[in-house]
Amino acid sequence: MFHKILIANRGEIAVRIIRACKELGIRSVAVYSEADKNAMHARLADESICIGPAPAGQSYLNIAAIMAAAELTDAEAIHPGYGFLAENASFAEIVGESGLTWIGPSPESMRIMGDKVSAKQKMQTAGVPLVPGSDGAVDNIEDARRIAKEAGFPVIIKASAGGGGRGMKVVHSEASLPNAFSMCQSEAGAAFGNNTVFIEKYLEEPRHIEVQVLGDKHGNIVHLFERECSMQRHNQKVLEEAPSAFVDEETRAAICAAGVAAAKAVDYVGAGTIEFLMNPDKSFYFIEMNTRIQVEHPVTEWITGVDLIEWQIRVAAGEQLAFSQNDIKMKGHAIECRINAEHPFKFTPSPGTVELFHAPGGRSVRVDSFLYTGYSIPPYYDSMVAKIITHARDRKKCIRRMQRAIDELVILGVTTNQELHQRLLANPGFQNAEFNIHFLERWLTQMH
Ligand code: ADP
C-alpha cells in the first residue's frame, strides 16, 4: 500500500479523499491555490503545498506545479478527484512516466473514452447499444443532412471532444441544420482544439441512468448497480439517487451488463461510470463514459456498502477486488442533493463569507462539504459547496429524511439553492418518480 498520496484537487472531493487516506493509514498531501490557503482540504491534509495563483489554469490545472509538489513531498501516487485534470490522459501519462502511480484508469482507456467518436466506435464493437445517428465523425453538410433525415428530426450535433454539457446543439428542422452544423464545428474547434462533430437522434423524453463500475489490475470488473441523475439544469446534475425508481429488475440486469461490457472493452481499472439515456419504453443507449470518480458516488456507496474511494486507492496499489459480482447487494435507497452557492432560481453565483454553517445530522444522513463558519467561498471555482446524502429502507422514507435534513441545514452569509431542493423534494412529479431529463427546466420555466 502507498505511504503518501497527493490529491490534485480542492473542495469537498479533496476532503473526501483525505478522509479515505486517513482511514487507510496513508499520509495525504494537499495542493492549494493562493485563494485556497484557508480551505478545509489544505487544513485537513498531513501536508499542504501552495501551487500557484487563484485561477485554476495557474494552479489546479498546472501540471508542472503539481508534479513539483509531488516530488518535493515524496508522494507515491496522485489522486485527481473529478474535474480539473481528472480526465486528462496526458497528465495520467506524465504521472506514470515520473514513476508515480495514477489513481485511475490507464491513459489508453482514458483516451478512447475521452473522445466521443472513438468511444462510440469501441462500444459498437462491444455490443453496447448506441443512440441512432452517424457511425462516426461527420465532416460535411451533405452527410449531415442525410444522417439527420435518416435518424429523423430533432437531432443533436455533438463535439467529439466535448464535455461538461458543452459543445452540443439540438436541431429541430432541416432548414436550421447547415447553420447549426458549421457553428458546432467552429465552436468545438475554438473550445476543445478539435472540430470533429457527430450526429445523434435527439431523444425527447429520456431519463439519465448511469452504471457504476469498478475494475482492478487483474482483469476483474464489477458493477455497483445504477444511479438516476435525471434532475438536471443546463446538463448539470442537481439531485441524484440510487437505485432508479424507473428501472425494473430485468432492465437493471441488462443495463448493468452493458456497463460491464463497456468497461471490459477498454480494460478498465478503477472507478468509472457509463452514462446511458433511457426511453420511456426502457430501451437504453450509451452516451459516454466518465473515467473518474463522480460527484454522486456516495449514493452508490450507501446502497452497496462499498467505499469507492478506498477501492480506487486499493486497486491502484495493485490489490485485487475483495468481492465478486455476486457479493455486491443493493440495500435501501439513497438520495444526494447538491448544495450550490447560487441563487435558488436565478442561478447567479453567490461567493462570499459564510457567517454560519450548521450541517444536518441524525440517522442515515451524510454531509460531504468543505464549509465552516467564517470561511470565504472564493469566486474562482465550482459553486458546489456541500452534498447532503440520505439513506433509508425505501425511496419514500429516503425523501422524508432528505426533507428534514435539508430543513436542518443552515448556511448564512451566502445565498444557496437550499430552497430549490425543498421545493423539488415536495413536488409530486419528483415524489412519484414521474420525470425525465427535462423535468427540472420545464418546472423552473413554469415557476416564472
Ligand atoms: P457531456 O460529456 O457534455 O456531459 P453527454 O453526451 O454526457 O455530454 O450529454 C450530456 C447531457 O445532454 C445528457 O445527460 C442529456 O441530458 C443530454 N443529451 C445528450 N445526448 C442526447 C441525446 N441523444 N438525446 C437527448 N438528450 C441528450
TrEMBL record:
It catalyses: N(6)-biotinyl-L-lysyl-[protein] + hydrogencarbonate + ATP = N(6)-carboxybiotinyl-L-lysyl-[protein] + ADP + phosphate + H(+). Transmembrane segments: none annotated. Residues 120-317 form the ATP-grasp domain. Residues 1-445 form the Biotin carboxylation domain. One of its GO terms (biological process) is fatty acid biosynthetic process. Pfam families: Biotin_carb_C, Biotin_carb_N, CPSase_L_D2. Keywords: ATP-binding, Biotin, Fatty acid biosynthesis, Fatty acid metabolism, Ligase, Lipid biosynthesis, Lipid metabolism, Magnesium, Metal-binding, Nucleotide-binding. Its EC number is 6.3.4.14. GO terms for molecular function: ATP binding; biotin carboxylase activity; metal ion binding. It comes from the Bacteria. Pathway: Lipid metabolism; malonyl-CoA biosynthesis; malonyl-CoA from acetyl-CoA: step 1/1. This protein is a component of the acetyl coenzyme A carboxylase complex; first, biotin carboxylase catalyzes the carboxylation of the carrier protein and then the transcarboxylase transfers the carboxyl group to form malonyl-CoA. Acetyl-CoA carboxylase is a heterohexamer of biotin carboxyl carrier protein, biotin carboxylase and the two subunits of carboxyl transferase in a 2:2 complex. PANTHER family: BIOTIN CARBOXYLASE, CHLOROPLASTIC (PTHR48095:SF2), PYRUVATE CARBOXYLASE SUBUNIT A (PTHR48095). NCBIfam families: accC, PRK08591.1. This is Biotin carboxylase. The lineage of its organism: Bacteria, Pseudomonadati, Pseudomonadota, Candidatius Mariprofundia, Mariprofundales. The gene is accC.
